[in-house]
Each structure stands twice: as structure tokens, then as C-alpha cells.
Amino acid sequence: MHGDDEQQFTNWVDARASALRRTAFLICGDWHAADDAAQATLTKLYLAWPRLTRRDDIDGYAWRVLTRSLTDEWRRPWRRREHPVELVPDRAADDHTGQVDQQRLVLDALAGLPGRQRAALVLRFWQDLSVEETAAALGCSPGAVKSHTFRGLQALRVRLGDGFLIEQKGA
Amino acid sequence: MEERDVRRLLSTALGTEPPSPFDTAGVVTRGRRTRSRRRLAASSGAVLAVVAVTLPLVVGLQPSATTVAGGRESAPAMRSAGPTVSPSPSRTAVPSPGGAVVPSTTTTPSDMPTGRVVLTAGCATADPSAAADDEHGLPANQPKLMDLYDRVEPVVKRRFPQVYAGGRLANPRDRIELFRKPSGAFDEYVLREFARDCVAVFDARYSAKEVKARADQIMADRPYWAARGITVAQVSFDNTGQVLPVGVKGDVARARAEFPDRYRTGVPIEVSEAAEIKFR
């Protein structure tokens, strides 16, 4: 990679790495796995950078690689794996208890969705990708993205209930 | 549920973000290192393929150029990487001091392994024309196959350590090729999990674990051979799980005679005179 390309690449990483990482977390539900997936994506992006800049398809490539690198994880029950920690997490009540409980509720609701529905929701509503861009990232048709999104929203509504949203809005 | 509700839900799910482990310089360094490693793997494989093709021509196509030790004679065609189709899986040995499985990127149309093959459903749409050179002179399907290899190899290596022998990119056939000791569970897993991709699975005689154990044994025996005037200069890795290629210096004839005696069972050793490796 030439100096200019490398500078462009570092600019892109500075601007987008956090978004990649957060999106990966929302798709896989685990910060360690999200870091691994984002790291793998950035390495592949570095290797493909000269080719991608000519095609002006950097973001599209990044989402494709990220979602594919999480594909294997989708085949396992999400967040059902054990994550060894050195200390037992302290769950004593603090000022953020309500917030943590809400986060847990939403994470569990997301965990119940099939991987593609989860990814479709995150890419569409968190990353604001169009249906076509989401389809390219997931390697499926726009129709399939619409179907995943619809079903995913329906499932979330069933799992969380309208009361949760009203409570959130009021919070 | 409206769009902004979903956004709010996802924001709740994100919670408090732990500090990011990335620094841009580290990302660039890792990218450079990966690129160098891949280039090295590709160029090492290319050099060996050239040697394999030209050496028989130089020595007048004498099959005695190499000797297989270990009590199992391999088929002559297995040692030839010439332009004819081998009756058994041909192989490309890639130097790997640590015994790691390194994908070879040097397969050619004539390097087609034969014998029993298991093909995933995705192979129905494999397109050999995708191997045409891109503007950099690399096969256009290289990124796709490397991506596929990166997805497949770590998983099968972890799940089937007792049978997995190695893998490689097969650009001319627009697929990746895996080698494993015959295993229904392995085949079933690959057919199921990678149905949308093109993965070909061939029989190997030994797993990577067994080949690595033999390589470790050879490395440990270096003082023994040095005392007999034989320098073990290269221990390569055969990613098709057939033999362990060993390059020696000094009394090569004696090595060819004595290696079979010392390593009678298990992974056979292919003894050859170590070529001098020149770095540019």
C-alpha cells in the first residue's frame, strides 16, 4: 500500500472503527467477540484497500466482511456461551440498576432472534443502511432483508411488549 | 414499533461501551504483517512448485531423485508435479518451521487431486474463469477464496484435529481444497456448514497433528544425524497429509538409506538434498 493509500486507510479507521465495533456488539452481543470481528474486518480491509478505493465500495465491503465474520457465531446460541471472569460480577444495586436491567432485557430479546434478523435490524436501524445496502452486506436479496426486518420487529414486539417501550419513553 | 423506537432499543442494548482496544497504528501494523505473511506463503509455494516442475526435467525425469522412507512406498505420480494428472492427490510442500498449516496458492489446472472427492453444493456454480489475472497479476478470485479459507480452515482445524491434514486455495478450480483422513463426520460438517461455498474434500493418509509429531521427532533427532555426517537442513510441511518432506545436506545417499530404518512406521519421510535458499 502506498503512503497516500495508507493515510486514507488510517483516516477511515479513525472515523469508522468505533461504529464497526458497536455494530458487531449489537449483532453478536459480546464485546470480546465484537472486538475480534472488528479487528478481523480492519485487517481484511487493509489488504483490500487499494482495490476498494478504486471501486469506491469501502463501507459496503466492511459491512460484508463484518457480518460474514460473525456468521459462524450465528450458528451458536447467542449469549448462551459462558464467559469466564476472574471475579464474580458484583450485581449489588447502584444508581444504574434500572439501566442495566433494561439493557439485559433488550439484549435477551435480541438474543432470541435468528442471526440474520438481528443483523438486518442492526444494519437497517442502527447503521441506517438502505434495504439494498443491507442485502449486499448480508449476501441476500432485498426482499429477504424486508422479510428479516419485519419478522425481527414482530418478534421484538412480542418479546418486549408495548409496555416496555412506553416505560422507556417515559424514563 | 416505529423506527425511532428500534433505534432507542438498540441504544439501550449497547449500554456502557468498554474502552476500545484499537489503535490505528496497531491496525496498520497488523495489516502489514498479514500481507507480508501471505506474500511469503504465496512466493514460497511458487518457488517450490517451479522446482517441482523443473527438477524432473533437469535430472532426466529420474524417479530416484527422492526416496520415501517409513516402509510405505508412495505412488510415483505423487512425487511428480508435472503436467499430467496424478492418480493420487498431488501436493505442494510449503516450508513452515512451526509445522503450521499454510495454504498453498500455487495450484494449477494440472495440479488437480484425484481419487474420492466430496464437493459442497456451492461447487455447482464454481467458475474457473474467475481465476483470470486481475490488474495486479493475481487471480481475480484470490480475495474470495482467501476469505473462504479464513472462514473454513480455523473451524475444521479446531473441530477435527484428529483427521484434518491441511488445505489450500485452488484458484483454477475456483474453490478451496481440504485434505483429511477419511471421516464421515468431517464431510457431513463441511457439506452442511459451507453448502453455499465451493469446498472440495480429499483423502489424506495422515493428519496435520501426526505430520507435526513426525516433524518434531526429526528436529529432535538432528544431533543424531549430525553425528553421522547428515545435516537436517529443512523440514517442510505437506498440506495434503501424505509425507514429511525433509531436506538434508552432507551425506545425502546415506540419509536416503538410513532414514527408512530409523522411521519404519508412521508418517513416511521424503528425503531430498536441501536446496540453498536465497533471499532477495
Automatic annotation (TrEMBL), chain A:
Gene3D superfamilies assigned to the protein according to its UniProt record, in alphabetical order: 1.10.1740.10, Winged helix-like DNA-binding domain superfamily/Winged helix DNA-binding domain
InterPro entries named among the record's database cross-references: RNA_pol_sigma-70-like (IPR039425), RNA_pol_sigma-70_dom (IPR014284), RNA_pol_sigma-E_actinobac (IPR014325), RNA_pol_sigma70_r2 (IPR007627), RNA_pol_sigma70_r4_t2 (IPR013249), RNA_pol_sigma_r2 (IPR013325), RNA_pol_sigma_r3/r4-like (IPR013324), WH-like_DNA-bd_sf (IPR036388)
RNA polymerase sigma factor 70 region 4 type domain: residues covered: 104-156
Superkingdom as given in the UniProt entry: Bacteria
CDD domains: Sigma70_r4
SUPFAM superfamilies xrefs: Sigma2 domain of RNA polymerase sigma factors, Sigma3 and sigma4 domains of RNA polymerase sigma factors
Protein name per Swiss-Prot or TrEMBL: SigE family RNA polymerase sigma factor
Source organism per UniProt: Micromonospora musae
